[in-house]
Prior knowledge:
Elements: H1 2-37, E1 78-84, H2 97-102, E2 106-109, H3 115-135, E3 141-147
Parallel strand pairs: 2-3
Antiparallel strand pairs: 1-3
Amino acid sequence: xxxxxxxxxxxxxxxxxxxxxxxxxxxxxxxxxxxxxxxxxxxxxxxxxxxxxxxxxxxxxxxxxxxxxxxxxxxxxxxxxxxxxxxxxxxxxxxxxxxxxxxxxxxxxxxxxxxxxxxxxxxxxxxxxxxxxxxxxxxxxxxxxxxxxxxxxxxxxx
Length: 158
C-alpha cells in the first residue's frame, strides 16, 4: 500500500511540475532569445610590454670539443631531494650545496638494486624520513641524497 502511495505522489508531483514548465516556457523562451541577440564581443587582452632591453652585443660562439675517446657514463649519479610533509614543501627554497653539506645529510644508496627493489626501498624509507623531518626545526624539511650511480640508467626511469 505504501509503494502505491509513493508512486501516486510521484505522478502527481510530475504533473504539477509539467504545468509550471508549460506556464514558464514562453517567458524562458523570450529570455533566451534576448540573450542570444545581444551579440556580445570579447575584447582582446592587453599586449604585454617587454621590460628587458635587447642588447645588440654580438655573442661569441662557444667551442665544444669533440667527445671522441671520452668515456663518461650518462645521467646523474645522485639526486638531492627535500623530504617532509607535503604542506611544508612549498615553504622551502633550494639550498646551496654548502648548506646541504653542513647539515646531517641522509644518504640512501640504491646501487645494484632493480627498479622494483629501489622503489620499494624508497617507499619504505619515506615515512621514516618524514618523521625525522617533523621532529626537526621549521620548516620541517630535511635534505636526502639518493645515490643511484650513473651506470646503465635502469633507475632513471623509476
